[in-house]
Structures are given as structure tokens and as C-alpha cells.
Amino acid sequence: MNPRPDPNHLRVSDDGIAKGGVLLDVRNVSLAFGGVKAITDISLNVMKGEIRAIIGPNGAGKTSMLNVINGFYTPQLGTIVFRGKERRSMKPHQAVGQGIARTFQNVALFKGMSTLDNIMAGRSVMMKRHIGWQMLWHGPALREEIEHREKVEEIIDFLEIQHIRRTPVGKLPYGLQKRVELGRALAMEPTLLLLDEPMAGMNLEEKEDMSRFIIDVNQQRGTTIALIEHDMGVVMDLSDRVVVLDYGKKIADGPPDEVKNNQDVIDAYLGVPH
Amino acid sequence: MFYPTAGQFKTSYQADYALFPVRQDAFLLGVIALFAFVVFPLTASEFTFRALLTPVLIYSLAALGLNILTGYAGQLSLGTGAFMGVGAYACYKLVSIFPEMNIVVAIALSGFFSATIGVIFGLPSLRIKGFYLAIATLAAQFFLVWLFQKWGWLYNYNASGAIQVPNIALFGVTVAGPRATAIAQYYFVLCTVCVITVFAINITRGRIGRMWKAVRDMDIAAELVGINLMRAKLMAFFVSSYIVGIAGALFVFLWRGAAEANLFDIPLSFRVLFIAIIGGLGSVLGNYLGAILIVALPVIISTVPKALGLPIDAATAEHLNVMIIGALIITFLIVEPHGLARFWAIIREKLILWPFPH
Does ipTM come in above 0.85? Predict the structure, then answer.
């Protein structure tokens, strides 16, 4: 049994921004697909070290927002400032290089690969040895592999998935797949972790486990988290600040208690006669 | 009982990354290697080498190349035959332009030609997937075979339009050409195939292999974990076509001795694809099992009536052969759609637990 990882050792994503400083700033972003407006003029920011929730009814533009943040969609208007650097468009694999990782609403794991390989794949950006060393499987390539394997094993211990290390992820139950996906995102050592409905389709016990992992990631590894979730109990308990979207517009932003009592939010969720 | 893995503990990641973490696997491979390197050469006849052992190895190598592209990186290709042709013609030109060049160097270099061509014909993979990509690679098949026929420089303006392998010696032993002995050729092919197989295993289990498999299983997610899809796909085309090109060079230089352009036509591509599919996509072992089934079994079956003294004429034996092989292929695919390699994996799993399956 490996000892519990030392939190200071794991705090890798140091980038000069103090805790509480603005890590990500989305400014007046609008995104449309043809005539369909997915996001209209939304500004929001994420502070370093916080857990930020994005909620809203179905079709409110939450997932589009995440896709804009990690470069999968390019917004027509507005800018995104991440770690002090401004950008309009970029490729998703460049966003990874900047320190943004994400999980998906419907699990997007590599089904034919084992848990270990899936999480190792999360470290592909950090592995550099070229094919010449790879085919010899000696010296630098092997050293690099072992070095990253140790990091991955730390994550496996952290998420308590040692027993499924060699199992192809296609054979795993849904709750464990979600956990492996979180592991793969963690392997990228992100500064900002985007979680798209991490608790969708889970039972109570799995939700409790996942909540625990999210808090631990935030506190032990110092990772900033932005999450989308429909379970209000979870959102209100976990997050530091909540932003509410409805029909592509921002209708509320603030601490959970404030948002909970906002009349617009209540109307959006319960529906009001127009 | 036969396969007890209990008690084989790994205390370091290095030990866990050994080529054969399970002792019995290493032992089994040792036995196979003993047969391949010692027993067969001592006992086999000229016919066995030429009709069975050498072609099985060469076809396995070609299937391994295709498997890297299709099985690991998920890019369907029907251009294998043409890429083999590029390797063969490149090797032929290298040997005729630089007659004193070492044959090993010539074959290794000719792989780079087919790799380059492979990357060029792999460019459509950046935009299209699956069957549509297969059709795009089919263009390579038609274009290259046409080129082999029309471009006289490739076959040194022979009247016959075919390439003839000259006598080539390696360390004083003739390995290619009419004067080469079957056993020398067999050893040459065996060593090449072994070395490339080890390289292929190492590539596919490391960083690059994971990259390919990620692209195969879910390309969007692969991009979002930071994999550059373009590089990953083109690298798969490069490595795959390199190995296929080497297989093509061996195919002509170490086995056929001569070749015409239409040898590299679609039937060859399909043959290699069948080997890879029946052997098992996404496995290295599968290529060997597939090649044994598709290449060796027909030869073995056709000798059976003669050995038993049955009065069957050659044409009937040939037809029977096709029927038996076809039935076997269908049976194997129904019993195990993931190929012979998975078949073996299941047997091995059962053997590890046997006789206490619970």
C-alpha cells in the first residue's frame, strides 16, 4: 500500500497567480450555430483555487460554454483570457498545453484500452521520447515511461481504482468509467479542470464518492474546477460560486445561497407563464 | 496448472514492463523460437521452405504493417499491395543503381520510399474516416500498379516488364537471386521479421501506441487529451507503410525472385487484410496466426490427399481446398469475431485459472 500522497508535492500547477486571483476570464462571449444562438454575450470568471458551478435548464448553453473554454468551439464575439493570455481561437490540443483538461457528459474513454493505458494517454503531451527510443524500449524511453507510470499510479491510488488497472474500460460499470475519466483528466496535471456532469446517472453512494474526489482534487492538488451539474444538492454543497444560464444568457452569478433565492433562477427552473 | 501465474510478483515498474511479464509466455516463445531457428532448418525440405515457412513469415510481416494502421490507429486501408510494390521496386532500383550496396541496407532504405508514399496517400485520412478512407487508399492501389507498368525506368526497361532479382550475397552467403538456397533465405527473413516484430511490440505498447489507440477509439477525446490527430495519423501511415514496404522487398527478393506489376494488385491487398482481420486487429500475435491459417493451411491441405494416396486430381483438390479454407474462416469468425489472437487470449485465461475456475 502506498502512502497517501503529500499534497504539497502534488501541487504542480503553480503559475504565479495567487489563490483567489482571476485564472480564467470570459468576456462578452457570443456563440451561434447558423441562426441558433447558443450563447449570448456572457461574461464570467473563474478564480484560482475555487470550485465554480455552471447550472441551468437543458439547452441553456452550459456544455457550449465549456467547449468554448477549452477551444473546441470558437466564439464569434468576445475574448477569453486564461492565465493572463488572451485568445480567440485555438486547437483543443493547444488548450491542453495551457493547462485545461476536461471530462465529458457521456463518458468519452478509449474503450479498447485498459484503465492504466487510458490514464497514461492523459500524459501523452508530457512524454517526448521519439520513435527511435520507443522501439528499443530502453534507456530514455523506458525511464520516461516509468517516471510517468509513477505519477499515474499516484492518481490510481488517489481514486482507489487499483483493482481495475488492467481491465479494458469498455467492461467497467458506468460509475467506475466516470472515475477513470476523471483520472485521465487529472493525469494532464491541469490548472483548470472542466467537469461536464460528473455525477450524471450515478446512484447516491457513487455521487458521494465523486463529490469527495472533487473536493480532494481541489484541496490536495490545488486544481481549480469548473463543473456543470444538475443535482442541486451537490452543486450547492460543493461550489464556491455558481453561475446560472438560461437560453444562452446569464441570469445569475454568485455564492450558492444567493443564487438559490434569486427569483429569475426560480422562474427559469420552475417555469413562469409568459 | 499448466499456466500458474500466482507467486510471480513484480517489485518494480521496470520488471512490470518486461517483454514477457509471465514466465510461461517466455518459455512458450522460447520453444517456438527453438523450432523456428533450429528444428525446422534441420528437418524441413526445400519445398517446405519455399511454399510454407518463408511466405508465412513475409505475409505475417505485411499483415503486421497493415495491423499497425488498421488495428492500432483505426485507419482502414486497401492499399497494402501497392505499398508492398513500392518497397519491392525501390529495393530493385537501389540494388541496380548501387550494385555493391549491402542487401540489408537496401531493404531498410526501400522501406522509407514506401513510407513516404504511404504518408502521401494517408493525407485524406485527415478529413475522412472508415470506409471512405478505404476507398481513398484504393486510389493508391490503382495508381501505383499502373505506374509500375508504365514507368519503364522502374524495371530498367526490361522487355518482359518484370523485375528480376540478381544474385546478392551477404557475408559470402548468397541470400537473393536464382543461386540462393532456401535455407539462407529463410534465416534472412526470420531474422528480419523477428527484429521488426520486437520493434513493433515496443512501439505499440509505449507512448506512440497509446496515441494510436486513442485516435482509433475516440478521436475527439484524443484531441482533448492533447494528441495531435494529424501527427498521430500520419505517423501511423509512415510506420505501417515502412513495415509493409520491407515486407514487399522481402516478398520479391527473398521469396519470389521475380515480380510483375500485377502481382501487387488488389488480391494481394485483400489477402493481407484478411490475414490481419482473421488473426485479430490490434494484436501482434494475430498476424502470425492469421498468416498460418491463410497461407500455410492451403498448402498443407493440398498435400493431404497425396500423402494418403487418394486418387483425386489436382483441380478437385484445389476446389476442396478453397471450400475447406472458406468454411474454416467463417467458423473462426463466428466463434470469435475478434480473431485468432483473442481466441488464444481466452484459452490462456482459462489455462491460468484451470483447474479451479472460481
Answer: no
Residue A203 has pLDDT above 80, yes or no: yes
Can you list the positions of beta strands (E) in A83-171?
85-87, 100-102
User: What pTM was estimated for this model as a whole?
Assistant: 0.87
Please say if the pLDDT value at position B242 is more than 90: yes
Nearest by Cα to B41 from B27, B28, B57? B57
Question: A188 at the B interface (CB within 8 A)?
Answer: yes
In the predicted model, is pLDDT for residue A11 greater than 60? Answer: no
Whole-angstrom distance, CA of residue A41 vs CA of residue A28: 4
Burial class (CB in 10 A: 0-12, 13-18, 19+), A203: exposed
Structure confidence at residue B6 (pLDDT):
67
By the 8 A CB rule, do A46 and A224 touch? Answer: yes
Nearest CA to CA, how far is A182 from chain B (Å)? Answer: 12
CATH number of B47-353: 1.10.3470
Q: B43 is written with which cell numbers?
A: 528437418
Contact B202 A91 (CB under 8 A): no
Predicted pLDDT at A1: 36
Per-residue pLDDT tens over the stretch A105-141: 888 888 888 999 999 988 887 877 777 777 777 778 8
Residue A84 pLDDT greater than 60, yes or no: yes
The domain defined by A9-106+171-270 carries CATH number 3.40.50.300: yes
The residue written with cell numbers 493481407 in the block is: B272
**Sheet arrangement for strand A224-228:** A100-102, A192-196, A224-228, A51-55, A241-246, A249-254
- Chains A, B: CB pairs < 8 Å: 103
Interface test with A, best of B224, B239, B281, B349 (most A CBs within 10 A): B224
Residue-range domain boundaries for chain A: 9-106+171-270
Among A79, A100, A76, CA closest to B224: A100
Q: How do beta strands A36-47 and A51-55 pair?
A: unpaired
Nearest CA in chain A to B211: A121
Per the CB < 8 Å rule, is B239 touching A131? yes
Q: Could A93 and B224 be called an inter-chain contact, meaning their C-beta atoms sit closer than 8 Å?
A: yes
What are the sequence ranges of the domains in chain B? 47-353
| Helices and strands in chain B: count of H runs, count of E runs | 17, 4
- pLDDT at A144 exceeding the cut of 80: yes
Q: What residue spans of B35-151 are helical by DSSP H? A: 40-43, 46-48, 54-67, 80-97, 103-122, 130-150
Contact B218 A108 (CB under 8 A): yes
